[in-house]
Amino acid sequence: MGRSVLCESFVEDYLRQLSRKAGVCMGLLIGQPAVGGKDYIIHATRITGQDEEESDESQKLNATIASQQALDATRMLPGGMYVLGIFVIHPKNVFQEPSLLSSIKFILMSLKATFDANPLLMGTCDELEQGEKLVLYYSSSSKAHTCKTVSLATENPTVLSCDWKFVERLTTWHKLNVYFETDEVYPLQHSSNREQYDTEANLTECAKKVKLQLADAKILFDGAPKLSADTIEGVLTMKNQDKFLANVYLPSPAVLSIKDTKIEEFEGTLKFDGIISSQIYIHSRCTFIEAERFIVADIVRSLMSRIQIHCDALVHAEDTPQDKIMLNELPRRVYFPVRPSQANFPVQFSDYIFPDESVDTPLGRIKEILDVNVTVRDLNSKVELVPVVKEDEREDVWSPVNASEDDFDGKLNMPVVGGLVTVIVLLIALLVYYFMK
């Protein structure tokens, strides 16, 4: 028995519109896999910049563009949501045309290689996807559709059968909010053959450490552990409520033995701290073991997305001297609805903006990568707020403790002045009371 796929009906409307406008195009299928070989597709987006010619050179170009857009789209997805495959709108049946099918296999292998090269983005979920990617063929002429899966577990990808259904409302989506705080210090590592520190390599190493910590973490729902096989919907029905409070607890040894202690000297250290907003959406039949996996995936993916976006924005000359203290402010997370016109569809994706960027900055990226039309009003940019530190406040923070007395000439000690004023007022009150007696 092959995989089973349920897809929101508005995705079919999107494909129908594309078939009328473009005729021939390709795009990404985004959704959530589940235990038992079932997938939920909630969004589709056209791959931009495609060349409709079918030469070998264009196939390589298409694979490159598709892989990059899949990577960019994954950065915007919450944990539990993945690029599960691609759709192809074409007048010819791609499964019956050897050249087209070969091109599709090449593109899927390119997607896999891209995700393998960026493991901390958690772009695949092999436990649930089983090494398979979906391929949906949609006829631009008859509007008929056929879906199959392509197994990428071997060097020669094989095509397997798949059952695809468009559904008006395929499931109920539950939201889990988690805030993960990290406050660690790591040694700085030099880049090879250079005296400078590699910012991206060091920040990526921090993300790896966080992932290792989360692998051993305990996640409690409403303050208590849940059975792995229990479904979210089943427990919520028993509790007569529609949401959970999830807490992530990292293991910490109660006693540190002498054998485990050591003193190390480093040329530099990196203080890695902050709070990550994690917001995931899970289907009604999702089990708690899946929910835990999705929470971890969201935290790590969000962290790595910020690091990559931040490092892509950095421009340093080779001979730029390193400051003793360097501040790397990662971008903050903003959320937007997948279906802005449908208030009853709760799933939201996210993007990232830097402190000096305006709230409307992500609108163009969201349209280009996910083909979603959102406005500033649709964005939720107040989940993560970065405190604004003025320059004089920074100087106060770094002012030397052993400052000379000359630095304070002409400045009043306000606590002392306040105390003197209080004493004078008290004496006047006592004198007035004494003479009016």
UniProtKB/TrEMBL annotation:
One of its GO terms (cellular component) is endomembrane system. Keywords: Membrane, Transmembrane, Transmembrane helix. It is found in: Membrane. InterPro entries: ODR-4-like. Its main location: membrane. The chain crosses the membrane at residues 416-436. It holds the Pfam family ODR4-like. Belongs to the ODR-4 family. It comes from the Eukaryota. The keyword Transmembrane helix applies. This is Protein odr-4 homolog. One of its GO terms (biological process) is intracellular protein localization.
